[in-house]
Amino acid sequence: MTNPNVIEIENVSKRFIIRKEKSLKERLVNFGRSKLHKEDFWALRDVDLSIASGSTVGLVGPNGSGKSTLLKAIGGIIQPTSGTVKVRGRLAALLELGAGFHPDLTGRENVYLNASILGLSRQQTDKHFDAIVDFSGIEQFIDTQVKFYSSGMYVRLAFAVAVHVDPDILLVDEVLAVGDEPFQRKCMERIKGFQHEGRTIVLVSHSLDQVAELCDRAIVLERGLVTADGIPQEALRVLRADFEATRQGEIDRAAARSGVADKPALQAQVGAVALLDERTREPIGSIRPGDSIRARVTVSASPLLQDWMLGLAIDTPIGTTVYGTNTQLLGVRLPPLTGEASFDFLLPDLRLGEGRYTLRLAIEGTNGQEIHRLDEAAHIEVRSDGRAHGSIAVDASFATV
Ligand SMILES: Nc1ncnc2c1ncn2[C@@H]1O[C@H](COP(=O)(O)OP(=O)(O)OP(=O)(O)O)[C@@H](O)[C@H]1O
């Protein structure tokens, strides 16, 4: 049976009005009536989502893509321009820095104020007060006005309140990142505790590894639109590919500006990549940890490719590189190439853990400039005996001392 939805977002769009300085020409045409002109900006466009009770959802995307706006719409801090947001259950939110705190009140007074906004009576807050202060670790400053708090102290107290009000739904924006490392770890443990208790968590994060580790679903927002939604591995793959396209676009634009773009179109390409058994030279399906394989790479070049190297990387499904090398690092100087040729990377004793890995290949100049890259050149499926997990395979055993 699937869990009921506790958050329903239907067709939500959010428009902000941005005021921009007019150019001198515009001001002259308008007889200087106003220095500003207004422009509509859609921070969210037709977002349709349902979030099931007990799920942990990561909202990811580039800067300015609408993540915080969506979280604020769920938290009821902002109203959508069109569409509806329905939330069932008690909601605690850690949104922007200082939100929900009054700067002139002390930490103690803010705990009571904040908890009452989140639906706790004075007696209930009394009961949790010591635990809140204890969790925050800022006991020494609890009777200081919060306007004198550092951003980390703010977040410590706000998170402590949020997790002690018994919420069904917890919304967490990137603000946690301003806490120091031990506090962030403590927050993560608490969030994991919430997960086990079946509470619903929606978090905004730029740490894709954290989303992959913590969340059972990732939603990618780009320019206010949902561009991917699913299990983190797949959604994050879409996001990383887009980041890569943006990066490449920036490189191309920079090259165009500096005139380097006048070079001939793609001079060389990585073509087919085949994974072969080291001994039999037959194509392989899956391997076991410690097997030896050959990655046979076909490169074509026209007119002439010289001073070049070939690179290979093995990535996990979320794009973390577990191994990478290139011919230069291996001490091999590749000969000039015209036409097509194949090369083998020999990968003996490949001690990868169970899972599906992606092979990435690139042709680069010996000066490091990328000429062509194939991101999903091939996949390596590793099946282990199930005695461990993780990306490396270790022949571990156990002994009592
Ligand atoms: N109150 C506002 N008035 C005008 N524009 C706003 C307002 N709040 C947000 N925006 C704009 O909406 C867009 C989305 O902002 P939002 O904070 O949701 O992005 P984000 O994905 O959380 O970004 P980041 O990763 O940088 O935190 C941005 O272009 C931002 O400038």
Automatic annotation (TrEMBL):
Transmembrane segments: none annotated. It holds the Pfam family Wzt_C. Keywords: ATP-binding, Nucleotide-binding, Transport. CDD domains: ABC_KpsT_Wzt, Wzt_C-like. The keyword ATP-binding applies. SMART domains: AAA. Residues 26-248 form the ABC transporter domain. The keyword Isomerase does not apply. Belongs to the ABC transporter superfamily. This is ABC transporter ATP-binding protein.
